[in-house]
Amino acid sequence: MELSKDTLTKIDEVIGRYPEKRSATLMVIHLVQDEQGCITDEAVEWIAEKLELQPVNIYEVVTFYPMIRREPWGKTHVRVCRTLPCALRGSYKTCRTLEEKLGVKEGHVSEDGEFSIEFMECLADCGKGPVVIVDEKTYEDVQGEAAEKFAEQVKNGTLAKDRNFTSYEDGLAKPRKKTVASKKKGARRK
Ligand code: FES
Hints:
CATH architecture of the largest domain: 3-Layer(aba) Sandwich
Mean pLDDT: 91
Number of helices: 9
Bound molecules: FE2/S2 (inorganic) cluster
Helix content: 40-55%
């Protein structure tokens, strides 16, 4: 199995953190999945050898956790929160809108392999639902008409350029504008 130098370095680093190689199993599985999109039989064999375990020790972890995939998701993977706070704000409808626009049912990959949708439990941003994660970017309050436009942008691959939808992560990266209150505070300090 071919892995990038970067992933191999990360795997060695993570194994080195534990007194027993076996303790790094889940972390190594995640690193392999991040690069390859899923954990194939070949990956199971490779990880087992790396950690000096039997393949069955890796299979038992891979088959236990639902977030570990045996087949890859689509090129663009969309996660929609289904837990109560987001559900009360319309996440079921948001998921249906995405399914219709992207032409794929939740839990599946579109025939052309472009899109997949996962309707899943809490995405850890419960105050601003419905929360949708596209690949690694988190979007809040995706509902109603906005959900229609959002789904359209995901489909066209233009979401990152649309100023109406700023991901949580991109919002953090932007410098905060000074408020009137903070300007006054700064002036008092001088
Ligand atoms: S309930 Fe949706 S992010 Fe937690």
